[in-house]
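Hey, weird one. I pasted the Ubiquitin carboxyl-terminal hydrolase sequence into the form twice and got a warning about non-standard characters only the second time. First submission, copied straight from the form history:
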Amino acid sequence: MTEVSEILMSVLSTIRVPRPGDRVHKDECAFSFASPESEGGLYVCMNSFLGYGSTHVDRHHAKTGQRAYLHITRTRKTQKEEDPNAGSGDPPKKKPTRLAIGIEGGFDVDQEQYEEEVKVVLFPDRQEVTSDDLASMPDVVRERVSLSMAGLQAADSVSHALQVQQWDGEVRQESKYAAELKQLDNGVKIPPRCSYLSFSGWKCEVCDLQENIWMNLTDGKVLCGRRYFDGSGGNNHALLHYQQTGYPLAVKLGTITPDGADVYSYDEDDMVLDSKLPEHLSHFGIDMMTMEKTERTMTELEIAVNQRVGEWEVIQESGTTLRPMWGPGLTGMKNLGNSCYLNSVMQVLFTIPDFQTKYVSNIDKVFAEAPSDPTQDFKTQVAKLGYGLLSGEYSKPAPDPGDDPSASTEPRGDQVGIAPRMFKALVGRGHPEFSTNRQQDAQEFLLHFINMVERNCRSGMNPSEAFRFLVEEKIVCQQSQKAKYTQRVDYIVQLPVPMDQATNMEELQEAERRRDEAESSGAPPPAVTRAQIPFAACLAALSEPETLTDFWSSAVQAKTTATKTTRFASFPDHLVIQIKKFTFGLDWVPKKLDVSIDVPDTLDLSALRAMGQQPGEELLPEVAPPPLMTPDVEVKGILGSHGNEEDDSLYSPLLSPVLDDSTVSQLCEMGFPLEACRKAVYYTGNTGIDAAMNWVMGHMDDPDFSAPLVLPGSSSAPGTTPTESVPEEHLATIVSMGFSRDQATRALRATNNVLERAVDWIFSHLDDLESMDVSEGGRSEGGSEASREPPPGPRVRDGPGKYELFAFISHMGSSTMCGHYVCHIKKDQQWVIFNDQKVCASEKPPKDLGYLYFYRRVVE
């Protein structure tokens, strides 16, 4: 022990005591999904506080020279079967009573109990030091090591903080109407609910509904609540009453107890607190202290939905028993709280060879080149996730100490799986949505992740090229028959759903009639009838020409009608198709189309290949439309005061556009930012509210959505100059796509340094860019025409447009912001369903109900 004491003394400077703000990774290895519960436990560096599994700690020691590690092992406690009559034993798992995570009464994050053992291990000989051993060591050693051990044990680990992320969905604010709520002296008294009556005692005064009943706290009207997305709930009579009277507060009868009740404010559009609720109820003869709860609160209803969503039975295929699968490429992923969208997308991506080659095939090289903090390195964490999914190391049945192994003959299907906490935290960092525990759109996450791959693969292999393709848009002026061609890069084909092409239209109309009858009579709604849409009709809707009204034709120098046709200028190796199920109703309320589409196993898109300019076809002159100007603006000339013949700026930045004030006002009243409304009206040419609203809905996610309007040709926003420097990161991203630095600079300056807009701009100005000086391409303006090489363009792969389906992601729920995602992947001619930690052979894959479809090229 004297030798060990001397070693500790020599490395005492590398043993730190955790301070507030230090990131302690004591639950997960930086390079693998090893944890203290894994075989070999977890080694936490006592200097950097990074965790390493038994297979990675030697590398860290060799690379850094660190010798002292805190070794943590956890053993699952044996859970004995509980005797209901016994006075001891662990209490049963409590049912959640609050819509919350990580707080008393909420959803428990971790129900499992462990016994933990900690000791200091000194490398390279792995000498062990326990707390008892420290007692015989010098005071300075004992004090520093003991404090470090205690501090590491007491510190909250980073992964646990990410997992819990305390959230309470029941935190309600006091209503602004509660203190001085007006109550009418109309003599209304509400009788208590009577158990001896033939009905419950309360019913809607309009439709006689007896459930989901609310009382308006101003006039005492008893009416039914809102109708839910599935047709259940009420008939909206309480809401309609508010719209007619403006009386804001209502209480849900049946939830009133001495502790409170559900109070909703229609004007504030939220559940609220009413500090004077006993007084307000007493006005209508209700004694709050004697009331008992007879209906589920809104929180209990939401909890029931949240518990239901994750159940395996919800997505079982036609009630069949699904066979669990294990092994390489069949690893489940734990749901970290609404992270099923991430799980589904990453499962599919790591079946694609490009991602396997980039991140998994050379994983030793990736780990060897990792920075000092690998938890913050994109390449390291993606490689870690890919290896975890493909290796099979974590594809093994999850232990269930509550079950007697001899009593069950069927495997349960749950896996140990992997919990992608570090990965989720890294890819979501700084993002307003993906950094939260809320449900997200799988398509939006896929594009977000591809964008991160693009930014992190500026040199070397870029796996996102597997999805990248060029789209050609051809616009033909109907008056002059002259055409204009533009190209843009894309990663996903968005397929429209033409509801008017449903093959069961008569059945849908009959279902609509029955639903209307049920609504008018107050009867329960009938079963939902799903529209049957042919895939060919969706493809035709994508490829058919679109009519453009009020198109400004440079050939006739006036507005006219044009047609726009979209085609593939290249076909990617892997094609992603999104079924546009999520749309907006006439009232701009988001809704999901409940449709069944006969998506084929094989796909031939050869007929949709772009042909480019045809022989004898004339192109529209490259002359821009006249700017919209106010009458009192002095016209500086077609080039403007800042323009020149070599510049792309055709208008003066000083010109002010004429905008339809009424349309701008209407958009602002809907809650959109003023500058966004001005841009919507400007870019739709003052053509009305519908066109402007469509523009708004299509650009809400733009980074510059609320930024001031910058006129075409102006490369600077207010307060900047045209020569303002461009972000080096954005330059590198565009250059990595095959363009020169000069071209990337010009694109960014033309779009106010907004990367997404710059990429669109550069693809719509390829002809202009061809004549540019290319500083990095070896081409100069003085070179001869014959010596000029083709202009650089985006790196896209091209080949035959024939594909086969290998995966699809499905969504269950009324909106992308709620519900559940699963994915089906074809593995060795067998369809496999991945539902978070459960991986099973699929018997009847619901290919007609998917949201995102993944095809790979068929090479003949």
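That's the output from the first submission. The warning seems to come from a hidden character in my clipboard, not from the data itself. The chain is about 25% helix and 15% strand.
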